[in-house]
Amino acid sequence: MIGKGSCKHKSERQEPLLHLQVEVKNKKSILESLESYVEGELMEKDNAYQCYHCDAKVTALRRVCIKKLPNTLIIVLRRFEFNFDTMRKVKLNDYCEFPMEIDMEPYTEEGIERKERENEETFGQEFKKKYPDDYYQYKLKGVIIHMGTSDSGHYYSLITDRDGKEDEWFEFNDSIVRPFDLADMKSEAFGGTENFGYSTNAYSIMSNLREKYRNAYLLFYERDQFYDVSDPEATTLEPLVPTEPSNPPPKNVADIMAKVTEENERYWRSRNTFSLEYYNFLDHLWTAHQVNPGLKFDLFKFICSFQLTIMARSKDRASAVEILLKLRNSIDEQCAEWLIEVFCVRMVHRELLIDCPVSEVRKFIVILLKKAIGEVGAEFKLKLFLSMIKDLELCQPKYSRCYY
Prior knowledge:
Elements (H helix, E strand, L loop, with lengths): L1 E2 L16 E4 L6 H8 L3 E3 L5 E3 L4 E3 L1 E3 L9 E7 L1 E4 L4 E4 L9 E3 L5 H11 L17 E12 L4 E8 L8 E5 L2 E5 L4 H5 L3 E8 L4 E7 L2 E9 L30 H21 L2 H11 L1 H4 L4 H16 L6 H12 L3 H11 L2 H9 L4 H15 L4 H12 L15
Parallel strand pairs: 2-7
Antiparallel strand pairs: 1-6, 3-6, 4-5, 7-17, 8-9, 10-11, 11-12, 11-17, 12-13, 13-14, 15-16
């Protein structure tokens, strides 16, 4: 927000740039969309800006611009909107082209300031750029295409080969991976209309046009030179130096097969963990403590730890709750003390009680803890309550002053 007239104050609200959302409706290209993005709105008269420095209503220009650019720039094309006439969500298939290379400097805070100074009397003063030229230069590296309507559709990707030729692109469409010709980018990703046949009458032959239901939805641009942008408050930029990855990708067939085998084993372990058969196994395992009471505490710790971890993440919680009910009914002082110690860990009680979005899980955890609290002495009760109270926002030091 930049004040006009006698007010020269500037108000800023900074947010990290994760992606840019730009309009495609009535925009021939994303360059027009970006110009519209930083165009600004004049606030005057009844809509004037309240300047807290001047304590008065002032005419001001409200504008959104980019303060810091990321190494990978994601541009979202707004192809979905709500139609208030039909009260339905619709997809915009308007034609909107995008370049293979783009200069983002005109849409940044620095670029806008430079342009405004050029329009004013600067008395020969040269505007010095804050960052090098390649900081603003991006090349298109990937496109995500949406094919369909606002209610249903299919996504596929067009991606450049980083290790191959610069202009070598591929289409990734589910199980289909094939080379993509950049000459087809306009027909494949820009949207607009297409010819789907001809109709004839006694006097003429007319082509039939319809909207293209496949068009670009996400654009991925990258710099050739990456910079260290981890600190948004940094006043200088340091180029990122390529380093060898800690786990380099395998280079021979044997290493690749070993990597695939490891990933497959991890997948099957995860799948079996959430299976009904494994729940049944744990249920039968718990009955072993009736035969050998000396195993009760170890079995309780193992099964309870597993179920508490899985229950919050599984879609089928009925089996987990059934086993935990059996554990609850068998809680003695030793098991209760161990359970209280577990829930004194900040990460555990935050995940399962404070931050857990599933009400059934939170409710059952309270039932389990209530049983454990009834089996322990005052020392463990106090320890549990203090650990949880410290996590409540209103108990933080900044809220220590109370009003009654």
